[in-house]
């Protein structure tokens, strides 16, 4: 059985500089979010009490947004990875807001990014198979507010996925 992996999401800092110990804590948690406070403290070279205070502060200040397990998609029958480029019919704040609100409600959308270039948005979608995507595309994706065009990319091989941030 594969050990579960944990992902630590980090938010960009605009107001506070992190010291080397904070950065080490963040790197260690990003590698293994299941570390106990005692193990994290030992690897960071600080006392458990100091480690706990620092970790709590990193959560409170938004440097760490969440800690969660990364589930193996193949083990739960979600082996098809699809990237969808979306072009909206209008480029207005209202049309973007409507599209984004609707996209957030779709449980099969893992990521939704506003992008510059040939598309307005890129969606990362994980499903059972292509037939499920075909059904959802026809019933839900093209019915999203303001969608003029979609272009679908079926992922053949995942080379890098959910890599830790390099800092």
Any overview of this molecule?
It is a single chain. With 167 residues, the protein is α+β, with helices and mostly antiparallel strands. The chain has 2 domains: 5-70, Arc Repressor Mutant, subunit A; 73-154, Lrp/AsnC effector binding domain/regulation of amino acid metabolism (RAM) domain (Alpha-Beta Plaits, 2-Layer Sandwich). The chain is built from 5 helices and 6 strands, in the order βαααββαββαβ. It has helices spanning 20-31, 37-44, 48-60, 93-104, 130-141, and strands spanning 5-10, 64-70, 80-88, 109-114, 121-127, 147-154. The strands form 2 sheets. It has a 4-stranded antiparallel beta sheet with strand order 4-5-3-6. Strands 1-2 form a two-stranded antiparallel sheet. β4 and β5 (121-127) form a beta hairpin. α1 (20-31) packs across α2 and α2 packs across α3. The chain is elongated and about 55 Å long. The protein starts with a strand and ends in a 13-residue tail after the last strand. Mean pLDDT is 91; it is low at 1-15.
- Largest beta-sheet characterization: 4 strands, antiparallel
CATH architecture of the largest domain: 2-Layer Sandwich
Give unreliable regions as ranges: 1-15
At CATH level 3, the topology of the largest domain is Alpha-Beta Plaits
What count of structural domains? 2
Work out the strand percent.
25-35%
How far apart the termini lie comes to: 31 Å
CATH class type of the largest domain: Alpha Beta
CATH superfamily of the largest domain: Lrp/AsnC effector binding domain/regulation of amino acid metabolism (RAM) domain
Please state the structural category: alpha+beta
Query: So what's the overall shape?
Result: elongated
Number of helices: 5
Cα-based radius of gyration, to the nearest Å:
20 Å
Total DSSP E strands: 6
């Amino acid at each position: 059985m594969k050990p579960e992996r944990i992902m630590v999401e980090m938010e960009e800092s605009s107001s506070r500089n992190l010291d080397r110990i904070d950065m080490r804590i963040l790197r260690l948690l990003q590698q293994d979010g299941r570390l106990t406070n005692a193990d994290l403290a030992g690897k960071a070279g600080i006392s458990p009490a100091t480690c706990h205070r620092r970790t709590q502060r990193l959560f409170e200040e938004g440097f760490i947004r969440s800690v969660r397990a990364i589930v193996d998609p193949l083990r739960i029958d979600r082996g098809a990875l699809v990237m969808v480029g979306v072009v909206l019919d209008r480029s207005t704040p209202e049309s973007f807001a409507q599209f984004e609100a609707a996209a957030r409600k779709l449980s099969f959308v893992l990521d939704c990014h506003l992008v510059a270039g040939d598309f307005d948005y890129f969606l990362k979608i994980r499903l059972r198979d292509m037939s499920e995507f075909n059904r959802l595309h026809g019933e839900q994706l093209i019915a999203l507010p303001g969608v003029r065009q979609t272009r679908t990319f079926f992922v053949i091989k995942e080379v890098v996925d959910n890599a830790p941030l390099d800092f």
